[in-house]
Design brief:
The protein is of the alpha+beta class. Helix content is 27%, strand content 31%.
Amino acid sequence: MLQEDITVQDSIQADRFVLRPLRKSDAGLLTMYASDDRVARGTRAVPHPLPPGTVEAMIDRAAKPDRTEDIWVIDGSAQGHAEALGLISLERMDRGQSEVFYWIAPAFWNTGFATEALRALIAANPHRSDRIFAEVFQDNPGSARVLTNCGFDYLGDAEAFSVSRNATVPTWTYTLKIAK
């Protein structure tokens, strides 16, 4: 992968919002959302309670040229929605593969924003991936529907550690082969 592929992170247009790189001004709203236990419990890495500076540190990491994960805020402000509806990210893996992670603020659950964001990310394929992986906790069937609605295939059951739960939690694992 070329260095410029890693340092440049473009915005991705969707119908109701834009996926754009994080900026420092996102910290307040994202901190408010990520402080919600319902958001934290749906992720592997978001702690609850959320320590001060956690979101700011994530924003700083996302701007580094040697990062392995690209993070986009789901920004609906141009369409009259909130400036931040949630986050979606791609973690680079080896062999032309990536893993996707996403969360939507609870006020915007069941609006189709996660499905639309994932479809836009797949269509843009910013990592030029051949395959994208995802996992969801088994007590989060809504996130599993997002994946299957976007064409992901179920691979199997696994487990992942959740920081907010301080426990290993059963997951469902999915994959999507990107048509080229």
